[in-house]
Design goal:
Blueprint: E1 5-8, H1 15-25, E2 32-35, H2 46-56, E3 61-64, H3 68-77, H4 83-98, H5 108-115, E4 120-122, E5 126-129, H6 144-149, E6 165-168, E7 179-180, E8 184-186, E9 188-189, E10 196-201, E11 207-210
Parallel strand pairs: 1-2, 2-3, 5-6, 6-8
Antiparallel strand pairs: 1-10, 4-5, 7-8, 9-10, 10-11
Length: about 230
C-alpha cells in the first residue's frame, strides 16, 4: 500500500485540536488515516469534529473505528438506557454543542457516520482497536466489550497471536506521552484532561500532537518526543 498510515487518538469533541493536527499532517489521497474512536463527548465541538472527519474521508482513505462513547451515543439515539450516566461522562457537552435535549435529535448524517464505523482495522504489521484486545484470539473473534471498553491501565494485554503491533486509544495517558510497550502503543494522550491529541505515523514512528486550542507540541533541543 502506498502512502502513509497514520493513527489519530481519541478526539472527544475537540474540533480545534483536530483541525490543527490535520493541517500539520496534510493528508493526501494516498494516505490512510485510522481514527481510533471516541469522536464525541467531553469537548465542546462534537458536531464540528464529526463534520471534519466526514470531509477528511473525501481527502484520503479514512478508517474510523467505533469508540465506547460513540457506541453509547448510538444506543441512546435508538432509545437505549443509560442517559444520565452518559450525560455525566461527557454527553452533556455533546447535547449542548448540538443545542438539543436528547441523542435522538442528533442529525442523521452524524448518526450515519457513527453507524458506519468499524470495530478494528489491520495492516501487514499493525492492528488498530479502540480500547484493548485478547492476545489469544483472532481479531474477528474478539469481544466488542473488550475492543471498546477494556482499560489497559493496570493490566495491559501481552503480544497478540498475530505478531502484529497493536495501536490503541481509550486509556488516557495523563502524562501526555504515548505508552509504548513494543507490542502495544496507546496514543490516547489525554486531550480532554489537559493533554494532547496525538497522531502517529505507524511505520516511521513520527508523532504530531496538539492541545485543545490547536497549539502544536514542539520537541525540546534534545529532540525528545512525547
Amino acid at each position: 500500500m502506498s502512502g502513509r498510515i497514520i493513527a489519530i487518538g481519541d478526539i472527544h469533541g475537540y474540533a480545534t485540536a483536530l483541525a490543527a493536527l490535520l493541517k500539520a499532517i496534510a493528508p493526501g489521497p494516498d494516505d490512510t488515516i485510522v481514527a481510533l474512536g471516541d469522536y464525541v463527548d467531553r469537548g465542546p465541538e462534537t458536531p464540528a469534529a464529526l463534520d471534519m472527519l466526514i470531509a477528511l474521508g473525501e481527502r484520503c482513505r479514512l478508517v474510523a473505528l467505533l469508540g465506547n462513547h460513540d457506541e453509547m451515543l448510538l444506543d441512546l439515539h435508538y432509545g437505549g438506557p443509560g442517559l444520565n450516566a452518559w450525560l455525566d461522562w461527557g454527553g452533556r457537552e455533546t447535547l449542548d454543542a448540538y443545542g438539543c435535549d436528547h441523542p435522538r435529535d442528533i442529525p442523521d448524517h452524524h448518526i450515519a457516520f457513527l453507524e458506519n464505523c468499524v470495530t478494528y482495522h489491520e495492516t501487514e504489521r499493525h492492528f488498530f482497536v479502540h480500547a484493548s484486545y485478547d492476545p489469544n484470539l483472532p481479531l474477528d473473534w474478539q469481544s466488542p466489550q473488550v475492543l471498546r471498553w477494556a482499560s489497559i491501565r493496570n493490566d495491559p494485554p501481552g503480544p497478540h497471536i498475530s505478531g502484529k503491533i497493536a495501536i490503541v486509544g481509550h486509556t488516557a495517558q495523563r502524562d501526555g506521552r504515548i505508552l509504548d510497550l513494543g507490542h502495544l502503543k496507546c496514543i490516547d494522550t489525554g486531550l480532554y484532561c489537559g493533554g494532547w491529541l496525538t497522531a502517529l505515523e505507524v511505520e516511521s514512528g513520527y508523532v504530531w500532537q496538539t492541545d485543545v486550542v490547536g497549539n502544536l507540541y514542539k520537541p525540546d533541543a534534545s529532540g525528545e518526543t512525547l
